[in-house]
Amino acid sequence: MGDYHSRGGGRGHGCCPPMDLLRSEPMQLVQIIIPIESAHLTVSYLGDLGLLQFKDLNADKSPFQRTYANQIKRCGEMARKLRFFREQMTKAGISPSAMSLTQTHIDLDDLEIKLGELEAELIEVNTNSEKLQRTYNELLEYKLVLQKAGEFFYSVQSSAIAQQREIEAHQVFDGSLDSPLLLEQEILADPSKQVKLGFVSGLVPKEKSMAFERILFRATRGNMYLKQVAVDDPVTDPVSGEKVAKNVFVVFYSGERAKTKILKICEAFGANRYPLTEDVGKQMQMIDEVSGKISELKTTIDIGLIQRDNMLKNIGYQFEQWNQMVRREKSIYHTLNMLSLDVTKKCVVAEGWSPVFATNQVQDALKRATYDSNSQVGSIFQILHTKESPPTYFQTNKFTLAFQEIVDAYGVAKYQEANPGVYTIITFPFLFAVMFGDWGHGICLLLATLYFIFREKKLSSQKLGDITEMTFGGRYVLMMMAMFSIYTGLIYNEFFSVPFELFGKSAYACRDPSCRDATSEGLIKVRSTYPFGVDPKWHGSRSELPFLNSLKMKLSILLGVAQMNLGIVLSYFNAKFFRNNLNIWYQFVPQLIFLNSLFGYLSLLIIVKWCTGSKADLYHVMIYMFLSPTDDLGENQLFPGQKTLQLVLLLLALISVPWMLLPKPILLKKQHQERHQGQSYALLQNTEESLELEQDHSSHGHEEFEFSEVFVHQLIHTIEFVLGAVSNTASYLRLWALSLAHSELSSVFYEKVLLLAWGFNNIIILIVGIIVFIFATIGVLLVMETLSAFLHALRLHWVEFQNKFYEGDGYKFSPFSFALLGEDED
Question: Which superkingdom does the taxonomy of this entry point to (predicted)?
C-alpha cells in the first residue's frame, strides 16, 4: 500500500494525472492556516482549482452566528434581484447573452449599488407601464360602453320622437273622443311631475351576465330595466389584465335605494362602471375625446416598452457575468464560514480532503493568493494524520463517467476498494448484448447513439428534456451496448431475425432436393463447420428452438460462473490491498472452493460435453452428485475418474461452509484479547496503511468485543453466500430467457407482419405492413426491449457480481469548485 501512495503522490506534475479507475485516488487530510487579509482570494483560487473538499469546522454554530453571515445575506439579496431581472427578460422575450460584450471587472459593493439602482428603475418603469396600461384598457372599455350604450339611447330616442309625433297627429284629427285625461294632460304639461329614472352603465363578464341579471331583478323586486349587448371580441380587463368576453349593460332604476343596491351588485360581480350622458350629441363628442386619449396613451405605452426593453437588453449583456460573480462570491463566503477563526482574529484555519497528486497545485494556488493579495505572511500548508475515512475520488472522462455512475447508483466505493466500474465498461454492454443479440437492431441503436455523439458539443449546451438528457448522458454506454449487440447478433446470425451466410456457405445440406422442412436429422454435413456463429441452416428448422435454447442456457451459466469468480477474485485483491489476511484465508479461499466445486464443475461438464459430443444428461449428473454420490454414472460418465472427482468436490464444498463460518469470529476475538492485553501492537506508519489498520480495529478497539454479534454477522454472510451461489447462478439464466424472447418477438414481427403483408400482392397492404413492422420494431424491440435488457444487466451487476466483493459504503469526494456551481446555488 505504501508503494501505491508513493506512486500516486508523484503523479501531479502534469496538468492532469493519468486515470486510474481500479483504485480511488489516494487522499490526504490537509490543514491550511491563511492570513485574514488573503482568505477571500485564497478560497477563490482554490475554487478555481477545484481539488479541495473543505470540512465544516463550525458545525456547532447556526448560519446566523457565523462570521460572514451578513455577506451571504447581501449575496442572497443580489441573487434575488438577478432572478427578478431574469423573470423580466423572460416575459419580454429577451435571452441573456451567452458571452458578455464587455468583460469588465466590477467590485461586489459597486455591483450591489448598481443592481439596486437598476431594480428601482425597472420597478418604477413597470409601475408606470402598468398604470398606463390599466388606463388604456379602461379607456377602451369606456369607448365600447359609449358606442354600444349610445346606439341603444339613439334608437330609443328615435322611437320616442316618432311615437310623440304620432300621438300629436292623432290628437289633432281626433281631439274629442280619445283625448287624455286631465291627470295625464297635467303630467305631460308639467315636467316637474314626471318620474325621473337614473341609469348605470358599464361592462360585466359574459359568463356572469345571467346571474347578474337575476340578482338585479331580485334586489330591486323587478323595479329596474336592464339592457345588455354582447361585445364582439374579448376585451382586456383593466384589473386582471386578461382577455375576457364581456357584455355592455345599462340598468335603469328609480330611487336612491335602488341605485345603492345596483352599485353594490356591480362591485360584487366585478362589473366595471363608466359614466354616460343621455345626450347623443355629447356622447359622440366624448367618443372622439376618448379615441384621442387612447391613441396618445398607445404612443406613450409603446415608448415606455421600448425604453424597458432597451434597459433589459443592457442588463442582458452583463447578466451572465453578474450572475456568475454573485454565485462565486456567495459560494466563497459559504466556504469561509466553514473555516475556523483564530483567537487573534488575524488568520483562519481550514481543513479539508485533497488528492495526493494535487499537493503541488494547492500549494501553488496558496502562493499566488498570497502574492496577489499583497499579504506580508504566506499561508501555511500541512498534512494531518487522522482516523477518519477519506472520501472516494475517481477521475473520469466523458466516456467512463456514465459507467461509474451506474456503479455509484448502487453505492459509492469505500476508500480505495476495488472499483467494479473498470469491469463494468466491458461486462455491462456485453451482458446486455447477450440478451439483445441482433446485428440489425444493434446497427439501429448505434446510428441513434452516433447522432448524440456527433452533436454532443451542441446538445451539451442546450436544455434537454428529462428522458433525452438521460439518454444523452449515457450515449457512450449505449454505443458500447450497440457495438456488442452487433457482435452477438453476428454470433446468433440474426438480422431482424433473418439469417445470412456472411462468413461462407452453410455446412449442412438436405439429403435430397425434396426435403424442405428438414430437421437436423434430415441434414447432412457437406462442408467444413460454419466459421463464425450459428450456422444459418439452423434457423427455420424444427430443431432450431431446442438447439438455440440449449446453447444459450449453457452460455448463460458459463458467463455467470465466470463473472461471479471474477467478483470473488476481486475480493482477494481487496483483502490483499488492505492487508486483511483473515479475509483471504477464511473468506476468499472457501468461497472460491465452494462456488467452483459445484458450479465451476458444472461449467467444466458443459465444455467437456461440447468438445466430446457426448449425450450425457447434465441435470442427472448434478442432481445425483448430491443424492447418490457413490452410484455409478453409467452412460452419463463424460471422462474417467469423474465419480472420484465428484466425491472430492462434494467433500470440499461441505468443508468450505464451516471454514467460512467458524474460524473468522474466533480469530477476531483472539486478536482483540491480544491487543488489550498488550501482547500485540500495530506499527503506525505515515501513510494510509495506518488508516486502514485503524479502521479495521476501531470497531473493536474502543468497545467491548461482542462475540455473539460477530458470529451472527458471519453466520448471515455464510448463509447468504451458500444460498446466493445457487440463486445467483440461476439468476444468470435471464440471459437465455431474454435472448429467446427478443429473438422470438423479432421473428413474429418479421413473419406475421412483413411476410404476411408481402404475400397479399397488394401495394397498399404492403405499405401498411411495412409501417406496422417499423413502428413495432422501434417501439417494442428498440425501446422496450432495450430498457428491459438494460435493467436486467444492471441487476446482474449490482446483485450477482458486486455482492461478492463490493462494500459500497463510502462517500463521494465533493470539492469546492466553481465549475460545479449550478443554478441551484442561488
Answer: Eukaryota
In 578-706, which ranges are continuous DSSP H helix?
A: 581-583, 589-595, 601-612, 618-627, 642-661, 663-676, 688-701
Does 535 have pLDDT greater than 80? yes
Task: Give, as one character, the DSSP assignment of residue 436.
Answer: S
- The three grid cell numbers given for residue 542, joined into one nine-digit string: 424444427
Among 266, 224, 275, which Cα is nearest to 247's?
Answer: 266
- For residue 13 the three cell numbers come to 506534475
Strand partners, 272: 203
The gap from C-alpha 525 to its chain's centroid, in whole angstroms, comes to 55
Q: Retrieve residue 39's grid coordinates.
A: 482568505
For residue 86, the tally of other CB atoms under 10 A from its CB is 20
Give the Cα separation of 550 and 436 in Å (integer): 17
50 secondary structure, DSSP code: T
Q: What's the average model confidence in pLDDT over 278-306?
A: 86
Q: Tell me the average pLDDT across 157-166.
A: 74
The β-bridge relationship of strands 246-253 and 508-510 is unpaired
CA angle, residues 752, 756, 762, in degrees to nearest 5: 150
Pairwise CA distance, residues 142 & 180, whole Å = 42
State the pTM of this model.
0.78
E-only strand ranges, 185-295: 198-205, 224-230, 235-236, 243-244, 246-253, 272-273
Q: What is the mean pLDDT of residues 675-703?
A: 48
DSSP 777: I
Between β-strands 347-355 and 53-54, what pairing exists: parallel, antiparallel or unpaired? antiparallel
Alpha helices in 10-68 (DSSP H): 39-49
Distance, in Å, from the CA atom of 263 to the CA atom of 224, rounded to the nearest integer, reads 13
Percentages helix, strand, coil for the chain (3-state, rounded to 5) are 65, 10, 30
Contact 479, 450 (CB under 8 A): yes
Mean pLDDT of 614-619: 88
Q: What is the CA angle 84-85-90, rounded to 5?
A: 100
The three-class DSSP label of residue 455 is coil
Question: What are the tens digits of pLDDT across the range 566-588?
Answer: 999 999 999 999 999 999 999 99
Q: State yes or no: pLDDT of 296 exceeds 60.
A: yes
Core vs surface per residue 129-143: b (16+ CB within 10 A) or e: beebbebbbbbbbbb
Question: Taking the CA of residue 550 as centre, how many other CA atoms within 13 Å lie in the half-sphere pointing to its CB?
Answer: 13
Q: What is the dihedral of CA 195, 196, 197, 202, to 10 degrees?
A: 180
Q: What is the CA radius of gyration of the chain?
A: 43
Other beta carbons within 10 angstroms of residue 177's beta carbon come to 5
Q: How far is it, in rounded angstroms, from Cα 274 to Cα 411?
A: 70
The amino acid that residue 37 corresponds to is E
- List Cβ neighbours of 603 (8 Å cut-off, separation of 6 or more): 557, 558, 561, 562
- Cell of residue 785, nine digits: 426491449
Grid cell 457413490 is found at 630
Residue-wise pLDDT for 165-223, tens only, equals 777 776 655 544 444 444 444 444 455 555 567 888 888 898 888 988 898 888 888 88
Q: Could you tell me if residue 293 is left (phi over 0), alpha (psi between -120 and 50 degrees) or otherwise beta?
A: alpha
Q: Provide the pLDDT for residue 189.
A: 47
Residue at grid coordinates 449546451: 461
Q: 419 — alpha (psi -120 to 50), left (phi > 0) or beta?
A: beta
- Is 552 in contact with 740 (CB distance < 8 Å)? yes
User: CA 47 to CA 815: how far, in whole Å?
Assistant: 8
Q: Is the pLDDT of residue 391 over 70?
A: yes
Mean pLDDT of the chain: 85
